[in-house]
Design a protein that fits this description.
It is built from 15 helices and 13 strands. With 402 residues, it is an alpha/beta fold.
């Protein structure tokens, strides 16, 4: 067979002319300093473009289980990421967080990409955090923030597709895994950094009231913002004390790329995460506190060797404070409270993605949510997709295409 046998069919003359004109137009516009990503029809395809449950269960990446050059390109972009940092703030909708000239609204988007259509998956706080690390949808207890730290009582011993435990409660059985479990099994490091936690792996005893729900002058850590504490696969192991630690341990970890965990899940306390309008210890609250905190910690992360080498930092919120809108075809999971209690989702919260693989000053209107964030982390490290992450769109070349 000659080389000419491998040529692609020629495009019709009219279509070829249109494409040529489009390339010229895009090239002429390429000199702007701030750009808006315009999603292609392929990138806006429904979430069925993500791996199927069977493909994910077999450990296939989005590139191998779906195929196609666009998907393969997205997977290649993600595989360049070797360290992921996630910062989760509290209870702010997109307009409140990303309007004005604050550090979060102006400075950080100028350094990376603003995801303008990023959504939470429920209300109140805990179900969003759980979704980010496990792909489990809300149940009635997590929707109510688990005032009592109870075991999840399964109604069925087997998981329901896509990987959902069926029942109700707070602390999932050891058979339900998190991205932390996946990373450990793959021999990769991870750590959750919780401001104000003090004692590592801190949580109530099973069946007890969670006394950290209301901040005090001496304690502004809350268990419900520490999602790894809701999985027996984490809390029943001695390694929990090395994986789930206080924020004070982050600076030492950032000293070199080799000491920085592959995944750093970072949560400020109830004052610094914008949760409280005013803080019991006298500090300013709300977005003022969150921006002050970000000004301190984001430069430390971005200045680290791991971030400069192959890092990606995502800053987002757990839920919007006033809306329950959703994206990405999200529907209530098998354990959700009755429809109408919290709405279909957690509202539009937005997110900023920073990395040397991200074009600075860009905006992206592709719909994403917390399941997408988990899918992105798992795809970056070649891990199986957990829960609803198996049906989610991971960040692709639209985000990490630089």
């Amino acid at each position: 067979m000659t080389s000419s046998d491998h040529r692609q069919p020629r495009l019709p003359v009219a279509l070829s002319a249109i494409l040529t004109a489009l390339v010229v137009l895009l090239t002429a516009c390429g000199g702007t300093t701030a750009a808006t990503y315009v999603a292609s029809p392929a990138s806006l395809a429904p979430s069925s473009s993500a791996p199927s449950s069977s493909a994910s269960a077999a450990g296939g990446s989005s590139a191998s289980s779906v195929g196609g050059s666009a998907v393969a390109s997205a997977a290649t972009g993600l595989r360049r990421v070797g360290h992921v940092f996630v910062i989760v703030l509290e209870n702010e909708n997109y307009r409140g967080a990303f309007s004005g000239t604050s550090y979060l609204a102006k400075t950080l988007p100028a350094k990376g990409q603003l995801l303008t259509q990023y959504y939470g998956i429920g209300h109140h706080s805990l179900d969003n955090y759980v979704a980010m690390i496990s792909g489990q949808a809300p149940d009635q207890a997590t929707q109510a923030d688990c005032a009592r730290y109870t075991n999840f009582a399964p109604a069925h011993p087997r998981l329901r597709a896509p990987g959902q435990a069926v029942g109700n409660g707070c602390v999932y059985p050891s058979s339900v895994k998190t991205v932390g479990d996946q990373l450990s099994a793959a021999g990769r490091s991870w750590r959750a950094y919780l401001e104000g936690m003090g004692t590592s792996c801190r949580h109530p005893r099973i069946g007890a009231i969670d006394t950290t729900r209301v901040p005090t002058r001496t304690n502004q850590y809350t268990t419900r913002h520490n999602p790894f504490m809701y999985f027996h696969s984490i809390i029943d192991k001695a390694s929990c004390r090395t994986h789930d630690v206080g924020l004070t341990k982050l600076p030492a970890a950032l000293k070199s790329a080799s000491t920085t965990p592959r995944l750093s899940f970072i949560v400020p306390d109830l004052c610094d995460d914008a949760h409280e309008a005013s803080c019991p210890d006298g500090r300013p609250g709300g977005m003022k506190a969150a921006n002050l905190w970000l000004r301190t910690w984001v430069p430390r992360i971005m200045g680290s060797a791991a971030y400069k080498k192959d890092g990606m930092l995502v800053v987002t919120f757990d839920e919007a404070d006033t809306t329950s809108t959703a994206c990405c075809g999200e529907k209530p999971g098998p354990n959700s409270a009755k429809p109408g209690l919290t709405g279909p989702g957690g509202g539009r919260v937005g997110a900023v993605v920073l990395s040397r693989f991200v074009k600075p000053g860009t905006r992206n209107a592709t719909p994403y949510n917390h399941y997408s964030l988990l899918a992105t982390i798992e795809s970056a490290f070649g891990l199986k997709r957990l829960g609803y992450a198996a049906r989610a769109r991971a960040f692709g070349a639209d985000v990490l295409g630089r």
